[in-house]
Amino acid sequence: MSQQTTDTILMVRPAACGSNPETAESNAFQSRAATDPAADREAVAAEFDGFVDVLRSVGVNVLVLEDSQEPAKPDAVFPNNWFSTHADGRVLLYPMLSAKRRLERRTDALAEVLKEAGFDSLRFDSTLVDQFEQQEKFLEGTGSVVFDHVNRAAYACRSPRTDDAVLTRLCELIGYEPVAFDAFDESGLAYYHTNVMMSVGSDFAIVCLESVSEESRAMLSERFASSGHEIVEITRAQAARFAGNIIELCTNSGDRVLALSDSALEALGEDAARFEARGIRLAHAPIPTIERLGGGSARCMIAEIFPSRA
After folding, report:
1. pLDDT tens, N- to C-terminus, the chain (310 residues)
2. Edge to edge, what strands does the sheet with 204-207 contain?
């Protein structure tokens, strides 16, 4: 039986972190303001290590892959966009819009870290990259796709980084149902990734419904009701502070954990108590520099590891 959450995740400690001009056009969350690179590097390193410490302190198993110094990869701290793991041992690789981001796909280094942790029966699958990247059709991992693993559904809001054809092919590969829709921020720009406006947990779904067309809004509401997910509705203003960019994890003893940034926690406000009432522990940390430079938050930093250890 598929499981929605995992107790093991992988994060990438970045060697460099900056604002990537190749991603800025489609990412309204990303700041283009001039900054002090040395100060940013120091802040990003401290934020990353602090978040890892918080997650480990609540019982999440965090594997850390060290970024390589060269070539520079400004978005390396967001590994969930270039690969996803699945219960059958498959590691899917994804076609990415930014040429700089494609450099993040260090499969040998990833395989080594996973093998050292006991995950050595893995199969890397580059079907989507091989078939679509040169056609300039993209799907950026669990940024573009929010999985409901238990109900085998793949939610995706269309954007320059999330293409219907690639989504359909992904679902053919893993036997999921594609659920595509459109969602726009206050300025009318499509959300660059689904996971900034939606998060699906074991029994809840955080969704910015006001950003979705009326027809798709009803469809999403009906789907979540039928799958037993309570909707926690957030506004565009809350999404802009990364209230949708969170992820449910678990510990090896089965305790539930919600990983999120301090910004997201503050934006959720009273809604945060709804998760605590479910017995979910909130694991949060300040990551403002990562959010400002990369335009992504806690969920973007986390790649789930689903296969069982050998």
Report:
1. 579 999 999 999 999 776 656 555 655 565 656 578 788 889 999 999 999 999 999 999 999 999 999 999 999 999 999 999 999 999 999 999 999 999 999 999 999 999 999 998 899 999 999 999 999 999 999 999 999 999 999 999 999 999 999 999 999 999 999 999 999 999 999 999 999 999 999 999 999 999 998 889 999 999 999 999 999 999 999 999 999 999 999 998 999 999 999 999 999 999 999 999 999 999 999 999 999 998 899 999 999 999 877 5
2. 198-200, 204-207, 230-233
The CATH H-level (homologous superfamily) assignment of domain 8-304 is L-arginine/glycine Amidinotransferase; Chain A (3.75.10.10)
The beta-carbon contacts of 270-275 under 8 Å, at least 24 apart in sequence, are 271/232, 271/234, 271/243, 274/204, 274/232, 275/204
* Residues in Cβ contact with 219 at an 8 Å cutoff, skipping those fewer than 6 apart: 179, 181
Model-level pTM? 0.94
